[in-house]
Write a structure and sequence with these properties.
alpha/beta; TIM Barrel
Length: 168
């Protein structure tokens, strides 16, 4: 496996609120040159990312419900539509952590289904983030995987990388 093969499997996240525009541009250029699969950016960066990554084969991704998943489901779906209209071609959705921890799986499934429907309208793969710094229970993670499989979610991810480790 070559470095290019590995890069083509990486979703590069440029999401920290402390990142300056100059830093973000450098990271976008790096990701495009390296051939990363996708770069996930904050919503205001989507048009810049689309411009910088044009022709590189690196997809532009947006994160909905970022960072802790507490945005209402209908708003996550609306975020998805708006971000895809601006040029995002992939969507990461942070699951509602409190609902997952509370084992309110019907809510979680309906939320994921709503966001997936919005992403599907643009042909954008949906990736669901469990935020495993908080969702540590293997039974909960297993049920989230079952839901995502049932709904045809493209991928599941462990974390946005922005959560602090907490004790449960």
């Amino acid at each position: 496996m070559t470095p290019s093969d590995i890069a083509a499997m990486i979703d590069h996240a440029i999401l920290q609120p402390t990142f300056t525009d100059a830093f973000i541009r450098r990271e976008l250029e790096f990701a495009g040159q390296a051939g990363c699969a996708a770069v996930f950016v904050q919503p205001y960066v989507i048009p810049v990312a689309v411009d910088i990554l044009k022709g590189t084969g690196t997809a532009v991704g947006a994160v909905v419900g970022f960072p802790q998943g507490g945005t209402p489901a209908a708003m996550k779906a609306e975020e998805t539509r708006r971000y895809c209209e601006r040029g995002a071609t992939e969507v990461d959705m942070v699951v509602n952590v409190g609902k997952a921890l509370g084992r309110e799986f019907l809510y979680v499934e309906e939320e994921i289904a709503l966001v997936k429907q919005a992403a599907d309208g643009f042909g954008a793969p949906l990736k669901v983030i469990f935020e495993t710094d908080y969702v540590r229970d293997d039974g909960v993670k297993t049920e989230l995987c079952r839901i995502c499989t049932r709904l045809g979610v493209a991928y599941v991810k462990t974390s946005t990388g922005s959560a602090s480790t907490v004790s449960q």
